[in-house]
């Protein structure tokens, strides 16, 4: 039993030394995982924007025919468009939350750097996130404005309000 206790103490000491030396490894892994989640969310959002554009283009093509609104496909496209836009809006807001979380972490690191902690000074990944999100934001906004006639007078003002909230929270933070 004494041998087991000595070995356990030695192994715990080695474990503590390894964790102290390589404590940055779990953080970098977490950061990579977070970056992958953001990229996946952004790709999903870009796909939604593309779906909205495709649906709108198909709707415009159907409306220019002889039986414009009598086609069942046109009616289905008209009903599916608001749903797609609302889903894209939810994904935009989720991506915005991820960016704001990363900005908050960076701000906290700046505060801790004032007390001597290490500060990652490379802002390129954070800037790239913001730029990517704003680019998709404007694409979705453009699609919503182009589809304003199909969205109606109730949904459009709510969407525009959500758009302004997304952009203002990004700019303010």
Describe the structure.
It comes from Bucco capensis. InterPro entries: STAT, STAT_TF_alpha, STAT_TF_CC. It holds the Pfam family STAT_alpha. Residues 87-146 form the STAT transcription factor all-alpha domain. The chain has 173 residues and is mainly α. The chain has five helices and no strands. It has a single domain (27-172), classed as Glutathione S-transferase Yfyf (Class Pi), Chain A, domain 2 (Up-down Bundle). The longest helix has 42 residues, at 72-113.
**What name is given to the CATH topology?**
Glutathione S-transferase Yfyf (Class Pi), Chain A, domain 2
Estimate nothing, just give the exact number of structural domains. 1
Please report the number of helical segments.
5
Architecture in CATH? Up-down Bundle
The mean pLDDT is 84
Beta-strand proportion: under 5%
Q: Label the overall shape.
A: elongated
Sketch the topology as an H/E string, one letter per element: HHHHH
Largest sheet: none
Low-pLDDT residue spans: 66-70
| Oligomerization category of the chains in this entry | single chain
CATH class: Mainly Alpha
DSSP helix fraction: over 70%
- The radius of gyration over CA amounts to 25 Å
The SS-based structural class is mainly alpha
Number of strands: 0
- How far the N terminus sits from the C terminus, by CA atoms, comes to 58 Å
């Amino acid at each position: 039993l004494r041998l087991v206790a000595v070995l356990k103490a030695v192994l715990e000491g080695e474990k503590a030394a390894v964790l102290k030396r390589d404590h940055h490894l779990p953080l970098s892994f977490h950061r990579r995982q977070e970056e992958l989640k953001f990229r996946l969310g952004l790709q999903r959002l870009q796909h939604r924007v593309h779906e909205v554009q495709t649906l709108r283009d198909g709707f415009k093509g159907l409306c220019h025919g002889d039986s414009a609104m009598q086609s069942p496909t046109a009616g289905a496209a008209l009903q599916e468009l608001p749903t797609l836009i609302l889903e894209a809006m939810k994904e935009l807001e989720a991506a915005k939350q991820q960016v704001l979380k990363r900005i908050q972490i960076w701000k906290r690191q700046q505060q801790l750097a004032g007390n001597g902690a290490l500060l990652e000074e490379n802002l390129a990944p954070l800037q790239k996130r913001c730029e990517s999100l704003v680019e998709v934001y404007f694409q979705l906004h453009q699609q919503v404005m182009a589809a304003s006639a199909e969205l109606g007078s109730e949904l459009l003002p709510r969407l525009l309000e959500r758009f302004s909230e997304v952009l203002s929270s990004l700019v303010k933070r």
